[in-house]
Write a structure and sequence with these properties.
Length: 144
């Protein structure tokens, strides 16, 4: 699949690190380091502008290493970039740790996954089909 991209970051385009990778790293495009205090959140720009094809979305997801090692999360994960959005790709970062986190220009801050999606047409009905689970949720299927 080809996707049009404008790269104003001064860095290499996002790319797959391995042949089986689903996501491509997004990098910070900032003029000066940003200190993200504990439980603070901020929007980090990437310098990338993309044209996602209709029928697809680009999902901005956290990097597992940052989440585990540094407590850095994306509070709206996954963030969705719709096919009609043409603005700069931004990443909302949240520091869920007890320590400051410093973001430098070029740091890998998130990953981008392009995924196909479907559009639905709602069919109003009076009753839904029954299942074994029915309305059970939030732990109703067991703990093990």
């Amino acid at each position: 699949m080809n996707i049009n991209i404008i790269n104003k970051s001064g860095q290499a385009l996002p790319h797959y690190e391995t042949a089986s990778s689903a996501g491509m790293d997004l990098r910070a495009c900032i003029d000066a380091p940003i200190v993200l205090k504990p439980f603070e959140r901020t929007l980090i720009k990437t310098g990338l502008f993309i044209e996602v094809p209709v029928g697809y979305e680009a999902q901005v997801r956290p990097r597992s290493g940052l989440a585990l090692k540094k407590g850095i999360m994306l509070p709206n994960s996954p963030g969705t970039i719709d096919a009609d959005y043409r603005g700069e790709v931004g990443v909302i970062l949240l520091n869920a740790s007890q320590e400051d986190f410093i973001i430098e220009n070029g740091d890998r801050i998130a990953q981008l996954v392009v995924a196909k999606h479907e559009r639905v047409e709602w069919v109003p009905v009076e009753q839904l089909s029954s299942t074994k689970r029915d309305a059970g949720g939030f732990g109703s299927t067991g703990v093990k």
